[in-house]
């Protein structure tokens, strides 16, 4: 297990992680390894995966699901000295390491200046309010939603007085000073200061809480489990309120999961993350189809580990209790990454038998160790979509703190207690957990265990979670939280046997992700409800939207917008060249406007490319039509010819957004521009320790980087981001892999010249800056031009001159250059039309097997069947 190195207060790493690559002088390479004639930096990979970068990692999407931070073997992760996230700052780095009196005064003066004369910004949707305040702020019902017990607000009685006053204490804590130096907004810095000061003055955290459980110690009820028994179906079976907390764009996976859990006797309340507008539009349409489905009239932007997730659950509970026409008995929370592993009848029979129980999974470890590892003894504040660590705190006396998984099944009585009770326990716990990391993983456990309902706790949340510590605990959330967290892996077909275990009652599993593996979802679906009829279309296909016209092009990067336009033009050229005949001139088009939608397309769990829906004018009839183009990437990985006798390398790829947990690039298709920082990935078979040489070559044969990697016998994947100076020269790049300087394989990737800058057509002067390559033509301080003759890669003056001329091209000339490059690495496979077309050769999209408009019965929703189900 990799131990985590602390960061200094300014966020720069002062240590490394075991199992991660490190630069090693060539003199330290073992004597038995063969020396290469051309020295390169050596990267040692001592574990199965490695990562090294001299720049910050790629920006990761913040709309990620909240997962359990503590796996079964959480005690191997040490957060005791883990300082806040890394981020370049204008503030002095030493400020966070050792705040001097002068520096603290500067910070205080800055806070005072920010507070004077400025109205207070309203609480943002992703900023940490106490559950009661946040619920009211986000609810469309306004004051009606404020029935949650009022927690003490941070900073005083009124927002106006709060923000006009400087902090009333000396902010000397290392973590608080670091947070202040890194927070971006004035509002967040002010809230950090006020929270810290109230805590320092003893005005924030409860010191003692009354335990109301009459039992000594921890109570956990046992339950009987007979998987084959569904005969115990009482006259009044329980009715379940499913609360679906979803985000992202995986509409079809959500619909498939909804189809599997739906029954007309249950209720479905859906919260869509505030940043997921496309998904929200789709869910609103879904809710119109069924009377027992509703969408929250309020939306929050939840982050991993944030207090906002607990606020979401508490507000959803309040809403459900206010719905007099929904007589539900159990509250179950799910995400789009969940899937049932037992039928609805089995679930209802089980819960009806134990309708007075509450099902939560506890950590099952030494409590003091859990508190330390979970960070419960630390003060956190959520603002600016980040969880800031502000210092230490004490656990309140009088109660036992517990926690584990934030996925649970709670009965109505306990939900009413948590929602409406004003007793000392509930009121103070809401206050305490408003400033807690991962509060949803501990709040309900702690309240239940110390409440009058303590004898109803069952230490089982009826779920199977796919924990793989080796892959899932890589501090992947440190960009949004000052802590190291873990996340489950996606299930794959080899895991299927785990769903059939009968050692304990389980009804749901997570995580599933169709862009990673859809086959296992199909297996599970068939296991529960039987296979679809032979010949059913779309069973092995998966489509996921990445852009929809109502989103607005401001949601797209210039790289994506540039390439989507080029893909559309590639499709129009295919129509004109392959469908046009001598007697038929009605298949010529001129592109119009921006793309209407873009989907990822997968078949048999392999990425098949993009589907671009776009508008074009048919030149034969001068009418606007809508088309959909399928573009597929050409093969980029090529084994050397003649093949090398080196057999460990299985595959190599270049991209961005590397997911070390699922071992894939989240930037599907590898869309790269001049300002991107590409990562090189290699997949290895087992074998002896070896050293390979990796060489990055730009489009005019300039060697941008070269390094050696020592691959240990157990390594499966390696990935490395060379610290290249930007911008990268546009064109087709090559990454060569050599063993003892004998070519093994190479991978090509495109760095696209941009036709857009800030979503506007790029100007010649902007193009010149972006497309001319790095300053002075040097990607790194070290020059590798001596290797060009060795590798047979001449740098020709004519190539350099041509690249220089192209760098200043804009308009139609730039589009022609771009389209020629795109056509070399992408293929327009087919084009269809969603509606009427003057081109008789175009197929209807609904009649194809690939279009986003083709039939997809596994995810399509229909009428409720006589048995009350959809599936």
Radius of gyration: 29 Å
Mean pLDDT reading: 84
Q: Runs with pLDDT <50, length 5+?
A: 1-37, 44-99, 116-164
Distance between the termini: 43 Å
How does the major sheet shape up? 7 strands, mixed
Main structural class: alpha+beta
Q: Give the strand tally.
A: 31
State the helicity in percent bands. Answer: 10-25%
The number of helices is 21
What is the overall silhouette?
globular
Strand order of the largest sheet: 1-2-25-24-27-28-19
Proportion of residues in β-strands:
15-25%
Task: Fill in the keyword field for this structure.
single chain; Spore Coat Polysaccharide Biosynthesis Protein SpsA, Chain A; 21 helices; about 20% strand
Question: What secondary-structure arrangement, pairings included, does this model have?
Answer:
Layout: E1 22-24, E2 42-45, H1 94-97, H2 101-115, H3 131-138, H4 159-164, H5 174-182, H6 186-200, E3 240-246, H7 251-261, E4 267-272, H8 277-287, E5 293-295, H9 307-322, E6 330-334, E7 338-340, H10 344-353, E8 358-360, H11 367-374, E9 378-383, E10 386-392, E11 409-411, H12 412-420, H13 424-433, H14 443-450, E12 457-459, E13 463-465, H15 469-472, E14 508-510, H16 519-529, E15 541-548, H17 558-579, E16 589-603, E17 606-618, E18 623-633, E19 637-639, E20 649-655, E21 658-659, E22 664-665, E23 679-684, E24 690-697, E25 703-711, E26 717-720, E27 731-739, E28 742-751, E29 756-757, E30 760-761, H18 764-771, H19 787-791, H20 797-807, H21 811-825, E31 826-832
Helix pairs in contact: 3-9, 5-6, 9-12, 13-14, 17-21
């Amino acid at each position: 297990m990799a131990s985590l190195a602390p960061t200094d207060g300014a966020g720069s790493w002062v240590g490394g992680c075991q199992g991660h690559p490190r630069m090693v002088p060539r003199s330290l390479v073992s004597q038995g390894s063969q020396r290469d004639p051309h020295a390169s930096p050596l990267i040692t990979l001592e574990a199965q995966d490695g990562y090294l970068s001299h720049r910050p990692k790629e920006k990761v999407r913040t709309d990620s699901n909240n997962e359990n931070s503590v796996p079964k073997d959480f005690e191997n992760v040490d957060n005791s000295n883990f300082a806040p996230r890394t981020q370049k700052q204008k503030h002095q780095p030493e400020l966070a390491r050792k705040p001097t009196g002068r520096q603290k005064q500067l910070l205080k003066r800055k806070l005072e200046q920010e507070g004077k004369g400025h109205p207070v910004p309203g609480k943002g949707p992703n900023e940490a309010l106490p559950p009661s305040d946040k619920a009211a702020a986000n609810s469309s019902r306004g004051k009606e939603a404020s029935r949650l017990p009022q927690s003490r607000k941070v900073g005083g009685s009124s927002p106006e007085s709060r923000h006009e006053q400087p902090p009333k204490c000396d902010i000397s804590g290392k973590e608080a000073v670091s947070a202040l130096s890194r927070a971006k907004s004035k509002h967040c810095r002010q809230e950090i200061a006020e929270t810290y000061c109230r805590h320092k003055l003893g005005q924030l955290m409860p010191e003692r809480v009354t335990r109301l459980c009459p039992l000594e110690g921890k109570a956990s009820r046992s339950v009987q489990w007979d998987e084959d028994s569904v005969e115990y179906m009482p006259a009044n079976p329980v009715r379940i309120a499913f609360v679906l907390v979803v985000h992202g764009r995986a509409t079809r996976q959500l619909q498939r999961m909804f189809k599997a859990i739906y029954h007309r006797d249950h209720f479905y309340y859906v919260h869509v993350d505030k940043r997921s507008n496309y998904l929200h539009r789709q869910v609103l349409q879904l809710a119109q189809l069924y009377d027992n489905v509703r969408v929250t009239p309020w939306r929050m932007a939840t982050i991993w580990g944030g207090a906002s997730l607990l606020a979401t659950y508490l507000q959803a509970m309040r809403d459900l209790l206010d719905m007099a026409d929904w007589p539900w008995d159990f509250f179950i929370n799910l995400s789009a990454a969940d899937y049932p592993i037992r039928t609805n009848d089995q679930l209802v029979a089980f819960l009806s038998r134990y309708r007075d129980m509450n099902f939560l999974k506890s950590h099952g470890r030494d409590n003091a160790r859990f508190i330390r590892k979970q960070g419960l003894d630390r003060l956190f504040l959520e603002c600016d979509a980040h969880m800031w660590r502000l210092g230490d705190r004490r656990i309140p006396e009088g109660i036992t703190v517990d926690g584990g998984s934030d996925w649970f099944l709670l009965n109505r009585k306990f939900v009413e207690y948590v929602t409406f009770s004003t007793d000392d326990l509930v009121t103070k716990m809401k206050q305490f957990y408003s400033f807690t990391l991962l509060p949803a993983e501990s709040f309900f456990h702690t309240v239940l265990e110390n409440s009058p309902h303590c004898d109803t706790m069952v230490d089982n949340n009826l779920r199977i979670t796919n924990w793989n510590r080796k892959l899932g605990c890589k501090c992947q959330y440190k960009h949004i939280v000052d802590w190291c967290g873990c996340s489950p892996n996606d299930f794959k077909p080899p895991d299927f046997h785990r769903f059939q275990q009968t050692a304990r009652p389980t009804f749901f599993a997570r995580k599933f992700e169709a862009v990673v593996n859809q086959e296992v979802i199909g297996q599970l679906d068939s296991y529960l409800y039987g296979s679809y009829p032979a010949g059913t279309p779309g069973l092995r296909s998966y489509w996921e939207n990445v852009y929809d016209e109502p989103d607005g092009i401001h949601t797209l990067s210039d790289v994506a917008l540039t390439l989507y336009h080029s893909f559309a033009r590639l499709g129009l050229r295919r129509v004109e060249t392959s469908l046009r005949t001598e007697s038929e001139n009605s298949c010529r088009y001129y592109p119009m406007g921006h793309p209407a939608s873009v989907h990822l397309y997968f078949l048999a769990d392999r990425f098949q490319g993009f589907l671009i829906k776009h508008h074009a004018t048919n030149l034969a009839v001068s009418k606007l039509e809508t088309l959909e183009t399928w573009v597929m990437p050409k093969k980029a990985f090529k084994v050397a010819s003649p093949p090398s006798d080196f057999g460990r390398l299985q595959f190599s790829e270049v991209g961005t957004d590397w997911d070390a947990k699922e071992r894939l690039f989240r930037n599907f298709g590898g869309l790269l521009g001049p300002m991107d920082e590409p990562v090189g990935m290699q997949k290895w078979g087992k074998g002896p320790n070896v050293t390979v040489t990796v060489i990055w070559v730009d489009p005019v044969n300039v060697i941008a980087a070269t390094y050696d990697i020592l691959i240990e016998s157990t390594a499966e994947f390696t990935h490395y981001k060379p610290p290249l100076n930007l911008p990268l020269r546009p064109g087709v790049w090559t990454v060569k892999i050599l063993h003892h300087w004998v070519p093994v394989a190479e991978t090509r990737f495109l760095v696209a010249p941009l036709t857009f800058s800030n979503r506007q057509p790029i100007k010649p002067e902007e193009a010149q800056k972006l497309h001319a390559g790095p300053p002075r033509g040097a990607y790194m301080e070290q020059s590798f031009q001596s290797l060009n003759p060795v590798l047979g890669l001449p740098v020709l003056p004519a190539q350099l001159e041509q690249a220089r001329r192209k760098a200043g091209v804009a308009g139609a000339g730039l589009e022609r250059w771009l389209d020629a490059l795109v056509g070399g690495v992408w293929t327009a496979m087919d084009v269809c039309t969603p509606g009427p077309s003057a081109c008789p050769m175009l197929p209807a999209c609904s009649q194809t097997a690939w279009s986003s408009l083709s039939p997809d019965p596994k995810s399509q929703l229909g009428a409720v069947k006589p048995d009350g189900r959809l599936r």
